[in-house]
Amino acid sequence: MRVAVVGAGVSGLAATKCCLDEGLEPTCFEQSQDIGGLWRYTEHIEAGRPSLYPSVISNTSKEMSAFSDFPFPEHFPVFLPNALLLDYLRRYTEHFSLRQHIRFGSTVVSIRKRPDFAATGQWDVVTEAGGKQTSQVFDAVMVCSGNFSEPSLPLQCFPGIERFRGQHFHSRQYKHPDVFQGKRVLVVGMGNSGVDIAVEASRVAAKVTISTTRGAWLLSRVFEHGYPWDMILNTRLMSLIKTNLPGPLSWWLINYKVNQWFNHENYGLQPENSWLVREPVLNDELPSYILTGRITIKPGVKEFKDNSVLFHNCPEEEPIDIVVFCTGYTISFPFLDESIVRVENKHASLYKYVFPPQLQKPTLAVLGLIKPFGAIMPVAEMQARWVSRVFKGLCQLPPQAVMEKEVNKKKKNQIQW
Asked: Do the first three CATH levels of 2-149+329-412 and 155-220+261-325 match, i.e. the same topology?
């Protein structure tokens, strides 16, 4: 069974390896000249690829992040700089002989159902390499292209931005803090990138402000008794509690746990709907930077002026020179017909975040399109195992109606930036 794998990042490598484990024949198409996806830093921004800033460190510990059959080297630190995480992926690739199954410099142009799809479940996959297009037939497809390539920049949601005379850009364009030297900086958005950029900017900028409409749970990488946060919060006991306690009681416990480091309300960070917050922000420095005045927390932006900004519930204008929009990314599959994977409000309609429920044959899956409360690598590996077994016919998906019901339920609980 021939399987096309799109992308050679974390998910693509796991997909290729799991296909081999099941006796399938994977061909992984990677548009760049190397593996790594999100974790491969380049100084210049490449179209269609995630863009990393050099200071990025993993938010999850190596003990909780490793693939199940390939632990991190013992001498690696607990939380990994991006270069070491890429080194780990290279070791994984070599150990399982994955490179021979990867076609570098190959861009997937289109993936279309074959005319006899209802009977065969096969796909026509068109790729381009060196200016030449090639069409091949595959029995199944694993889409592992990620969701950090196409920035979401909804400028229409920010009245007055067209008359703002300062500089503004999306966080994807950020590389080094030098651009903020002596400037008054506004960071819009309270995700991991937003907080990282604000902290870095505050070391050289005249002033840094973070604008957040909904707050966030902020965790330190170092948690109770000096253990990594995910080794404390991602245990069987905590999972049992979150799953079996009544919703309000479960979230009271989470509230209590995350507020032990500092009271979020006192810092202007308390999430508006705390029971809906799934993805914490990891930063060890932000609370002290707020206390020392290096960073100020403000509510959502009401309006931009020529050289200043107005916030909701704040009467005074705040002068600014640079705005960094940390407003997330748009999920996009330019090589797929929209009817295959429906995307609406940054939400892809996928069963268990993996399978399009409406396909006549379950021969296409999307991997890595999930934000787990913890590490992505073990989750991507579990997805790849499941998908490869579905492709092989060892696992069955439920009826379409059952899958669509769950997809719609997930859609209702979807959170935006």
From this structure: yes
User: 155-220+261-325 maps to which CATH number?
Assistant: 3.50.50.60
Strands 301-304 and 132-138: unpaired
Cβ 295 vs Cβ 200: under 8 Å = no
CA dihedral 179, 180, 184, 187 (to 10 degrees): 90
Q: What is the DSSP string of 380-397?
A: HHHHHHHHHHHHHTSS-P
pLDDT digits (tens, 9 = 90+) for 277-297: 557 899 999 999 999 999 999
Which one-letter DSSP state was computed for residue 70? B
pLDDT tens digit sequence for 107-136: 999 999 999 999 999 999 999 999 999 999
Query: 341-354 as b/e, with b when 16 or more CB fall inside 10 Å?
Result: bebeeebbbbbebb
Choosing among 3.50.50.60, 3.40.50.880, 3.40.50.300, 3.10.280.10, the CATH entry for 2-149+329-412 is: 3.50.50.60
Residue 231 and residue 220 in contact, taking contact as beta carbons nearer than 8 Å = no
Length of the chain as a residue count:
417
Nearest CA-CA partner of 340 in 323, 315, 319, 365: 365
- Please tell me the pTM assigned to this model: 0.93
- Token pair of 161 as six digits: 């931005």
Which H helix or E strand runs over 319? strand 318-319
What is the C-alpha separation between 224 and 20, in angstroms, rounded? Answer: 40
Domain ranges of the chain: 2-149+329-412, 155-220+261-325
C-alpha span between 239 and 45 (Å, rounded): 39
The residue type of 357 is: P
Q: Are residues 148 and 169 in contact, defined by beta-carbon separation less than 8 angstroms?
A: no
